[in-house]
Amino acid sequence: MSKNGVFRIKGWHVLAGLIAFFGVVIGVNTVFIVKATKTFPGMSVEHPYEKGLRYNLTIAQREQAEVQNWQASLQINEANQLIARIVNANGPVDGLEVKINLVWPGLPHLDQKITLLPGGPGTYLASLDGIERPKERKVVLIGRAIWPNTDWAFTFDGQL
Asked: Domains, the chain, ranges and CATH?
């Protein structure tokens, strides 16, 4: 206060206000950064650099699969088995290595990779016994059917 009873802002008041303001901003930002990095580490796919290098190959494989009318259908039967049926313009396709990622959106700690085994013409099976499945959640299936000893793969996906 000045001598006549009127409050005057002095230099140290401005300095204290600026320090308090930026201290609050930095503190809040720090809290948000810590929470964000703990809930999402930043990688949405494994090996992103390598996948980027193979991107043109992936596009060529998808175009070839489309021309040859490759299709995959997915279902779960009564015996709790995941069934993938893979066909192309020539009919059922045998002799593939089929791998599927089970992805629950929002629950990355439950994601699992499974390998399907041949189960008949163009049919591949895997038991889902022992795999934790959240109730009332859709599962996204991302699969790759690979010709053994080649770089060619048919990528497919679906929801159950």
From this structure: 68-159 (2.60.40.1940)
